[in-house]
Structure formats: C-alpha cells, structure tokens
Design a protein that fits this description.
Keywords: Acyltransferase, Transferase. It comes from Amycolatopsis bullii. This is N-acetyltransferase. The protein is of the alpha+beta class. The protein is built from four helices and seven strands. It has a seven-stranded mixed sheet, with helices on both faces. Strand 2 and strand 3 form a beta hairpin. The longest helix has 15 residues. It starts with a strand and ends with a strand.
C-alpha cells in the first residue's frame, strides 16, 4: 500500500470529487438538503485551489480554498480516522500562507465543529439557517495562518 499524497486536483477529477462528497454519511438524513443538486465542476477545480489526498491513484479526500475561505473539505467514509482530514487542513493552511492570507474562514457542517477546533480553528460566530436548503445554524470558525 502506497503513501498518501496531497496533490492539486485536475478538472477531469470533478465527477469523482462530487461522488465522494455525495457519498458522505455526514450529509445523509437531515443534512442531505445542502448537497441537493450540488456538483464540483471542472471550472470550479480549475479556478480554485482544490487538492486531493490520494493513495495508489484512489482519491480519499479533498479540500478547496476559495479566496480566504475553506469552501470544501471531505474525506471518504472508509478513509476516516487515518489523519487525512488533518493533513488536508495542514496543507490548506500552507497554501493560504503562500497566497499571503492571514486567516481562513470556515462555515462548518455542525458535526464537524469539534474536528475544526481540534485542528486549531477558533469559533467566531454562527451562520443562521437559510431554509429551505440549509435548515440548521452553522458554526463559523477561523484559522489563523501560521507565518512560518
């Protein structure tokens, strides 16, 4: 079994990223509506720093930084607990530093709040529900980007 590597996503990987996202158990049931009709497109991958965590050519997770916000971060259910989410956050913060950002905003999926706090994000507020697609309040957090 090969090493997990984090590399820039290619636009033609957008369908695989969409499939990974929609397969997430964290977005089933009451949280499913937020992903209804949402797809990662080739144009999105091309325009935004999107990185995949892969092993032996298999995509295990991905993240996307849009301006100064972590827009997407998903890890395949079968790959959770391997430290992939932590590696994606660390990589995202390094990318943010390269872009001269001082901080990165996260509007979190409620069950992911504890993960982001463990990773060093600080809670800054709450984004109110916006029915019908988002029927729950979402935690807002911020990562300070390390300078070194």
């Amino acid at each position: 079994m090969g090493q997990i590597e984090i590399i820039r996503a290619a636009p033609d990987q957008a369908p695989a990223l969409t499939a990974l996202m929609h397969a997430s158990a964290a977005y089933q049931g009451e949280y499913a509506s937020i992903l209804d009709g949402y797809a990662v497109t080739p144009g999105y991958v091309e325009a935004n720093p999107t990185f995949i965590a892969a092993r032996d050519g298999k995509i295990l997770g991905f993240s996307a930084l849009v301006a100064a916000e972590l827009d997407l971060l998903f890890v395949a259910d079968a790959a959770q607990g391997l430290g992939i989410g932590a590696r994606l956050v660390t990589h995202m913060l390094a990318e943010a530093r390269k872009r001269g950002l001082e901080s990165v905003r996260v509007v979190s999926h409620p069950p992911a709040l504890a993960f982001y706090v463990r990773m060093g994000a600080r809670r800054t507020g709450t984004i109110p529900a916006n029915p019908p697609k988002v029927r729950w309040d979402r935690p807002e957090l911020r990562f300070d980007v390390p300078t070194c």
